[in-house]
Predict the structure.
Amino acid sequence: MSSSASGKTIRIDNHYLHVELTDGRIISTPLDWYQELMQASEQDRSNYHFICNTTDIEWPTLDYQLSIESMLIGAHHQQAA
């Protein structure tokens, strides 16, 4: 998988986590893959930033990190170490 999958923005609705990549693609994965995000408040969900040269997403108030590459390959529930 290419390591150039860099995030630009995210959006979370009732069913999916959508990530817009810097190359214009939008990837969406089922929200129920990420129990931490499903159970989080709107405020905590909106408190995110990109880390690791924008290849990962972090929600600091949830202590949760997610790799964009794991979304692309369809890996469920990837918590960064």
User: Anything to note?
Assistant: The chain has one domain: 7-73. The first strand starts at residue 7 and ends at 12. The helical segments are 35-39, 42-46, 68-73. The beta strands are 7-12, 16-21, 26-30, 49-51, 56-59, 64-67.
